[in-house]
Structure formats: structure tokens, C-alpha cells
Specification:
Non-ribosomal Peptide Synthetase Peptidyl Carrier Protein, Chain A, mainly alpha, globular
């Protein structure tokens, strides 16, 4: 993914990864932006590590240990907001 990734591209990238790689065994899943993916058991703790690695590899940002909190992973919108915030701070 390039530095010019749009909010929509990031959102779609996250949804694709979660549905295809993490929730592949949930074919009826409707992944909305506000679905609480941990609370609804779409992803588990091990999946979060895969998600972090995926974002780091695809977007090129690094998660700081203090940023690995459940709030940042609550929904697709939360993850997207975190990524956009990191990208914006790198532009400063």
C-alpha cells in the first residue's frame, strides 16, 4: 500500500484481511465498520497479532507497545482511525 492510501482503501484492506484471513470460518459474517470484532468473537487475541503484523507490513507503520490496547482494535473504524492518525503524525 502506498503513502497515498485513502481512508476507503484502508477500510477495504482491513475488511478484506479480517474476513478472508481471520474470520474465514464465519461465511455469514457481515463485517460493518462498527461491529465490535473482539466482543463479537470475530477475532481472538492471536488474530490481533496477525492483524498488527499485516497493518505494519501493508501500511508501513509500527505499533508502539502502549498502543496495543483493545480500544484501538474495537471496530474497523477504530483500527482505521488509529492508522490514519499514525500516517498523519508521520507527515508532520
Amino acid at each position: 500500500m502506498t503513502e497515498t492510501a485513502t481512508e476507503t482503501q484502508i477500510e477495504q484492506m482491513l475488511k478484506d484481511f479480517i474476513t478472508e484471513e481471520l474470520a474465514y470460518d464465519q461465511p455469514d459474517l457481515v463485517l460493518t465498520n462498527d461491529l465490535k470484532i473482539i466482543e463479537q468473537r470475530v477475532v481472538d487475541s492471536m488474530d490481533l497479532f496477525r492483524l498488527v503484523r499485516f497493518v505494519e507490513d501493508e501500511v508501513g507503520i509500527l505499533w508502539e507497545p502502549e498502543e496495543l490496547v483493545l480500544k484501538n482494535f474495537e471496530t474497523v473504524d477504530h483500527i482505521k482511525a488509529y492508522i490514519l492518525g499514525k500516517l498523519a503524525s508521520e507527515d508532520d
